[in-house]
Design goal:
By secondary structure, the protein is of the alpha/beta class. It is about 40% helix and about 15% strand. Helix 6 links the parallel strand 8 and strand 9.
Length: about 350
């Protein structure tokens, strides 16, 4: 295994990171099977595992905690805070109040006394970022967290967080998570260069574009049995994505690869990407993903991919799984108010 430096943290992680979002009732409810999958991934040399408190309402973290056993010190664990964990409006977000409570809950579920990487799962424009960074800084000093990161931040927010950290002498975010695949390349424009500028590692989520790059979802194929179709029906039926897939499949075949393996190799070939997060639901899916760990792509193949999907562009829709800035989601922020009527 060729381990990679995680930004400038000094930690080394595997190019593939095991994502556990599908472990639990929302994906695979069989805990023993999920634990065996975790063990198998670790046995192949993967030392990087990603989860979140929000994944299946904490069940994913609980499964990972059961699987750790005596191997904890050899695993880099990333988990996240932000998503709603109850009906209480304060059981979510990036406030100091919630972060200090949420980290204790994650530590308990993970059955560990420290978290290697603690991510802010999405931007929290309603919270002063200085408050969030201050809380994270205290967790670092306490030893409960080893390093901190963000997920799906716009480039401007990445830069602003670095500025605040320097100006207020607070801890810096050291890793960013972003959606990145052959079909989703927009982050190549500004986000990846910003991360490189600040020495941040980057883990790529959805490297298979929600399953579009498995080759199972093709034009005219209406009978795909996939849990992802249930949640991402719009993405699975997007005509532009399906057209690109039809061009990518013969390219992969000409290189002697499956589309899945070519897609994963594409992601980890970018110099700004530390790891690609793989998210299997079944042992069979895990076996297929692990079989692609040693695949590398030639310049010729990468050039052909660039012709099918232009660098810096998105083809596949990300829907609500990615972050939509308030400037887009809040209509009042992009329309001038009508002038008040003057009554004579």
């Amino acid at each position: 295994m060729n381990y990679r430096l995680l930004g400038k943290t000094g930690m080394k992680v595997s190019p593939f990171c095991l994502g556990t979002m599908m472990f639990g009732k929302g994906g695979n409810p069989n805990h023993d099977e999920c634990i065996n999958m975790i063990h198998k991934a670790l046995d192949t040399g993967i030392n990087f595992v990603d989860t979140a408190d929000r994944y299946n309402n904490g069940e994913s973290e609980e499964i990972l905690g059961k699987a750790l056993g005596g191997r904890r010190e050899h695993i880099v664990i990333a988990t996240k805070v932000w998503g709603a964990m109850g009906s209480d409006p304060n059981q979510q977000g990036g406030s100091r109040r919630w972060i200090l409570k949420a980290v204790e809950d994650s530590l308990r579920r993970l059955q560990t006394d420290y978290i290697d990487i603690y991510h802010l799962h999405r931007p929290t424009p309603e919270t002063d970022l200085e408050e969030t960074l201050s809380a994270f800084s205290d967790l670092l000093r306490s030893g409960k967290v080893r390093t901190i990161g963000t997920s799906t931040f716009p480039a401007s927010d990445i830069v602003e967080a670095q500025r605040i950290a320097e100006f207020r002498a607070l801890a810096r975010f050291r890793i960013e998570q972003q959606p990145y695949s052959i079909l989703n390349r927009q982050i190549e424009k500004e986000i990846l260069p910003a991360c490189q500028r600040y020495g941040m590692g980057v883990s790529a989520w959805s490297p298979l574009a929600k399953g579009m790059l498995t080759g199972k979802h093709r034009k005219g194929n209406k009978d795909v049995d996939s849990i992802r179709v249930k949640y991402f029906a719009k993405a699975m039926s997007d005509e532009n994505s399906l057209a690109a897939v039809e061009e990518l499949i013969p390219l992969a075949e000409s290189a002697g690869l499956s589309l899945t393996h070519m897609a994963l190799a594409f992601v980890v070939s970018h110099p700004a990407i530390t790891s690609a997060i793989i998210g299997p639901r079944t042992p069979e899916q895990l076996d297929d993903l692990l079989a692609g760990m040693k695949v590398t792509l030639s310049d010729e193949v990468l050039d052909q991919i660039d012709k099918i999907v232009l660098p810096g562009t998105d083809i596949a829709p990300l829907d609500m799984s990615a972050y939509i800035p308030q400037s887009i989601s809040d209509v009042t922020l992009r329309r001038r108010p009508l002038p008040e009527r003057i009554i004579l």
